[in-house]
Amino acid sequence: MHSAPRITVEVPVLRVGSGAGDYEALGNYVDALRRPQGLHLTLLHIGVLADFARDIADWTKGSTTAGNAAGTTVAWLEGLPVLAGFAARAERLVLLGGGRVSGLEVEVPQHVRDYQVSLVKALHELLDALLVDNVDDFILSSQALGFRYPRWTPHIAVGRPKSRDRGPWDIEPVAVEFGPSRIRNRQFLPALDAGGGCRDQDLGLPGAGGGQ
Fold first, then answer.
1. pLDDT, mean over the chain
2. Strands 7-16, 169-178: parallel, antiparallel or unpaired by DSSP?
3. What is the C-alpha to C-alpha distance for residues 90 and 67, in angstroms, rounded to an integer?
4. CA geometry: angle at 79 spanning 186 and 66, to 5°?
């Protein structure tokens, strides 16, 4: 298990329903309901930066070093446009992570779906710039990225399922308010060196493994 923080592009949940009671009512379906202050909807998962950089270095057989892959990725993340806050709706719970997590399935506006598609397209462009060939194959095989499904399902992980059933479960419809998009764990991104890369020690990699 990784202790290093995972990097994602996400939107924070500001409010579920019209008050605390609307969220707490999900406890009828979910065990260990998560604190509402930490809820979010993931738009793009990058994973542990060092792992992502190492995946690229391995795939390119060293043509792109881990340090340069990490540095380019950090600069790319910092340059992503911000999605403004928006309102959405949820009316059912679904199972995630092989059935270990319950999530609110969220009906997001079309412009949010368009933004998420633009992130995936930008990821393709990033990988092209990093000399990754067969980008689709890389995305599906990268352990760091963890892409398991071809279609994005907007959801908010809220706790553990009470039932052993596979669901989904209809709930009383609730409005969900989201804040502007942000980079999760941004404060843990390493600083760039003069050449636009990251030092191996900043990534937690062995001295000879990645950067120059």
1. 90
2. antiparallel
3. 41
4. 65
Q: How many CA atoms lie within 13 A of 188 on its CB side?
A: 15
38 and 163 Cβ atoms separated by less than 8 Å: no
The C-alpha atoms of residue 124 and residue 167 are separated, in whole angstroms, by 34
Residue 80, CA atoms < 13 Å, CB-side half-sphere: 29
Query: 50 Cβ partners below 8 Å, 6+ apart?
Result: 4, 66, 70, 203, 204, 205
Segment 101-133, tens digit of pLDDT: 999 999 999 999 999 999 999 999 999 999 999
**Cα–Cα distance between 120 and 118 in angstroms, integer?**
5
CA distance linking residue 128 with residue 43, whole number of Å:
21
Domains of the chain: 7-203 (3.90.1140)
The sign of the torsion formed by the CA atoms of 160, 166, 171, 176 equals positive
- Cα dihedral angle (132, 137, 138, 142), rounded to 10 degrees? 180
- Rounded to an integer, what distance in angstroms lies between the CA atom of residue 33 and that of residue 76? 34
For residue range 164-202, list pLDDT tens digits in order. Answer: 788 899 999 999 999 999 999 999 998 867 666 666 556
Q: What per-residue confidence (pLDDT) applies to 43?
A: 97
Residue 185's closest CA among 3, 14, 1? 3
Residues 48, 188: contact at Cβ < 8 Å?
Answer: no
Residue 71 C-beta-side C-alpha neighbours within 13 Å: 18
Q: Are 17 and 23 in contact (CB under 8 A)?
A: yes
Structure tokens at 160: 């553990």
